[in-house]
Amino acid sequence: MKFFVDTADIAEIRDLAASGLLDGVTTNPSLILKSGKPMLDTIREICAVVPGPVSAEVTATEHGKMLEEGRKLAKLARNVAVKVPLTPDGLKTCKVLSGEGTMVNVTLCFSPAQALLAAKAGATFISPFVGRLDDIGHDGMSLIAEIMQIYRQYPHLKTEVLVASVRHPQHVVQAAKLGAHVSTVPPNVLRQLFKHALTDAGLKAFLDDWAKTGQSIL
Ligand code: G3P
């Protein structure tokens, strides 16, 4: 499974990219606001740090303007994935941009029917928001299971399932068990994936015992 980080904070992205485990980045207008920086410069900077797909979201809602914005975003760097909302105009724009060879991430997906339409529109990625479904008492991961089941029936569909709105490590584990292609994960959750108390305790015990040997490897 590919790991994307869900942030527009360039310092966080640089830090996590250094782990060698980062395959891409997703941003959205709320994350750009949170970064406090100009969107276009931020996307350019992120694309220079992470070679994988970097999602940059259009903010227009009408097809013509979405297409104009999408083409401008695509020109920022070759690894930009233009993000469009799952609306009729968004999918119309997705079809044109993907036909032009631009990566498209269709976002704000909350149903299997929406995911099927996005795949038909040639989306590179579909972003089902699992956390927001959990937030209203639904089971976000069951949506991932349904989408994976549908996509498996049609091997010619190339759309990758990019699990978004991830709230905790269990979302990542469950997504991986379902065979989702990508999880986009907030920086704090990405760091939690490394952590286990028994790992920390075990390492401490090893190092304490090593110190007692009085030896050194170098
Ligand atoms: O990539 C989508 C993600 O940023 C949405 O997350 O926590 O606002 O539901 P959240």
Features:
51% helix; TIM Barrel; 8 strands; eight-stranded parallel barrel; alpha/beta
**Low-confidence parts lasting 5 or more residues at pLDDT below 50?**
none
The helix-strand sequence is: EHEHHEHEHEHEHHEHEHH
Mean pLDDT: 98
Q: Please indicate the percent range of residues in DSSP E strands (runs of 2 or more).
A: 15-25%
CATH superfamily: Aldolase class I
Please give the CATH architecture. Alpha-Beta Barrel
Structural class: alpha/beta
Bound molecules: SN-glycerol-3-phosphate
Number of domains: 1
What's this model, at a glance?
The chain has eleven helices and eight strands. The protein has helices at 10-17, 29-35, 39-49, 63-74, 88-99, 112-120, 130-135, 140-153, 169-177, 187-192, 197-213, and strands at residues 2-6, 24-26, 54-57, 80-85, 103-109, 125-128, 160-163, 182-185. Residues 6, 26, 28, 129, 131-132, 164-165, 184 line the site of SN-glycerol-3-phosphate (G3P).
Q: If you had to describe this structure to a student in words, what would you say it looks like?
A:
The two termini are 36 Å apart. The chain has helices at residues 10-17, 29-35, 39-49, 63-74, 88-99, 112-120, 130-135, 140-153, 169-177, 187-192, 197-213, and strands at 2-6, 24-26, 54-57, 80-85, 103-109, 125-128, 160-163, 182-185. The longest helix has 17 residues, at 197-213. The mean pLDDT is 98. Strand 3 (54-57), helix 4 (63-74) and strand 4 (80-85) form a beta-alpha-beta unit. It has 11 helices and 8 strands. The protein is 51% helix and 17% strand. The chain has a single domain (2-213), classed as TIM Barrel (Alpha-Beta Barrel), CATH 3.20.20. It has an 8-stranded parallel beta barrel with strand order 1-2-3-4-5-6-7-8, surrounded by 6 helices. The chain has 218 residues and is of the alpha/beta class. 36% of the residues are buried. SN-glycerol-3-phosphate is lined by residues 6, 26, 28, 129, 131-132, 164-165, 184.
